[in-house]
Structures are given as C-alpha cells and as structure tokens.
Amino acid sequence: MEKKMLKGYIPFSAPLNWEHVQPDDPAVRCVIGFTTNWYHERVGVDFSERYHLDPEYRFENVAKMKEHVLKCFPNVPYFHEHDQDGFFQECATVSNVYGVCLFSMLYGLKPVYYPHIWPAMRPQDHLSEEEIAALKPIDVENHPVIQQLLQQMDYIEKKWGKIDGCVNFQGVLNNAFKIRGADVFVDMIMDPDLCHHLLDHVTTTMIDLIHLIQKRQRDSGYNADFTVASSCVVNMISPENYEEFVMPYDRRLEKEGAAFGIHSCNWRLDPYAKAFSTLDRVGYVDFGFDSNLTHVRECFPETRRMVFYHPHFLKEKDWAGVEADVKRMLTETGPCDICLADIELGIEDEKIIRFDETVRNMAAKMNLI
Predict the structure, then answer these.
(1) Which of 179, 182, 201, 321 has the highest Cβ tally under 10 A?
(2) Is the four-CA dihedral 244, 249, 251, 254 of positive or negative sign?
(3) Sign of CA pseudo-dihedral 181, 186, 190, 192
(4) pLDDT tens, 182-239?
(5) Over the stretch 6-52, which tens digit does the pLDDT of each residue have?
(6) Is the dihedral of CA 228, 234, 239, 242 positive or negative?
(7) CA atoms within 13 A on the CB side of 144
(8) pTM of the model
(9) Are strands 282-288 and 259-263 parallel, antiparallel or unpaired?
(10) Contacts of residue 282, Cβ cutoff 8 Å, sequence gap at least 6
C-alpha cells in the first residue's frame, strides 16, 4: 500500500496540524509554535467565543499575529513556509476553530471559552453509561455546530478563495476521553463492549466529519485529503490495551485518506512504537525527546519523523546542553523535524532564533538537509 509523507506545522494560535510534504521541503525543519497566552499578552488577541465563530474577526487577529511573529523572527524559514500563496492566505483559516473541542461538541458537550487559552471542556461534563449505550448515528452535515462551521467556510471562500487550514479532528481515544471522561479507561476493564461501542461510534463519526470538511476544502482549491490519529492520551493505557481497544479503529482511520500520520504528543513513545509501526500507512510520527530515538527511527525508517523538544529545556539548560541535545536528536533519529511547541512568555526571542539557527546549521554540517 502506498505511503505518502505528512509534515507537522503549527498555525498561528492553533494546535499542531499537518499538511503534505512537498518535493522541495528540507529533510530537517525547526517547527516553532507559541501558546495562545503568548499571543494574548504580546499582541492583545482575545480568543473568546467570537474568535471561533467569526472568520472576519479571526482573519484580522491571525494577520496581527503573523505580522508580529515575522517582525520578531524575520529570518526563521519556518514562518515563511506558507507565503507562496500570498502573505495573508494562511490567515483565512479554519485551523484554530474551537481548538481541540470541535468533535466532542457533536455529542452535545459545550466548551468554555477564555480570552487567553483555547476553549476547553469541563471535566465533569461527559456522557453517562446509559447515554453511551443509547448513541445513534450522528447526521454530521446537518448538526448545528457543523452548519455554523460550513457557513464560516462559505464566507472564507467567497472573500479569500481557498479555505486554508486543518480542522483538528483529534484521535479516536482522545475524542472518547473527552466524551466519556476517565470512565472510558474503566470501561476497558469493566465493560469492554460498551467501550468498543463508543470507540466504533466515534470512529464512524470522525470519518464522516473528515470527509465532509476536507471535501469542502478541496472544492475551494485547498488540498486536504489525509487522516491523523492524535494519540495524546494513549500513554494512559497499556500497549496491550492500545492494541485491543484502539488499534482496530486507527486501522479504519488510516484507510480514509491519501496519507496517514500518528501524533503522539510530547511523551515517551517507546512502549507503543512497535505497535504503531505495524499500521500500514504511517507517513508521519512524532514523539517526545525522552524517547529512545534510535529505536523510533528503526521502527519508522521510511516515515517523516518529528521530535518534540520542550521549551523548558531551552529556558533552563546552558547552551552547550542545548547543542548536545540537538546533536543527539539529529544523530539518533535524523533526518527529522525538531518541534519547539507551546513556547510561553519568559523565553527570549534571541534564544528561539539561536535554536533555529543551531538546528539548521548542525543539520547542514551533518549533510541531513
């Protein structure tokens, strides 16, 4: 089965998202992203409900964020990756709509909005055992939440042309966790049939939603035709439980697009690497710096890899320690992208610039670019 590569990118104020690898992409990229609070404090962006419902308001604020970032980091190549379609094209986006809450809103859960962070679901709001058992198919296209999003997409196409960005659909277990809460892990032990019922329902609904949104984007001229399993909470279950409860649904998900990726968040991939590598079409995988990097490369030799390097390291280590870390990442799992995500206030711009230069210069010396 053909395996196509994806690469990670972090749109302004949005969660990590993905796009197709292009023939002229460097083999090593430094992917950089800031928290919403960073933008809130430095640019004054308000991420409350209007930001997620009003594409015009969102465009104005994303443009403000982009202008500020390029003023602060004019020579960082990563921030210019999307300029070929016009400076402001990526500002007409759906990447940052509802943060990571969109999918769970289809199940009647309502996000809480904040001026400085992404919207979030209240942990006490989740579906009961009876509500999970009674779930019926969701008419995604006619759901009020999706109707409103489609209206936004119509507006974006009419005013700016193609509908840029990547709605964050999350992953099967991520979504089940938001919908059922921590009880989803209890269900794996106490009521496996109920757990599979929820995971199956979530997978079917995800596939319907992904096809609907991505087709609408393709119709506008934007190339969106892939799936990604966001597995941020998989490390809360054993590798055996992953294989029994989640992998069958990841296998369904990977067949639904032209490319497939696995987002493992900034944690240690080692216990799950072998299982993930048995999926057929993994063209992207990310993992934390504390992973056995050599082992991950052995498991995914022909996959686009990205290592998360926590900004805390950049803040607390001396520069010799940072350089040693960069060398380790490039040596043990390169060529790879290195991601400096969730940068918060308190890290000097100069350090971020120096980190980007260190990654690129070292990759060049090692003939990885």
Answers:
(1) 179
(2) negative
(3) positive
(4) 999 999 999 999 999 999 999 999 999 999 999 999 999 999 999 999 999 999 999 9
(5) 999 999 999 999 999 999 999 999 999 999 999 999 999 999 999 99
(6) negative
(7) 5
(8) 0.95
(9) parallel
(10) 3, 254, 260, 261, 262, 276, 300, 303
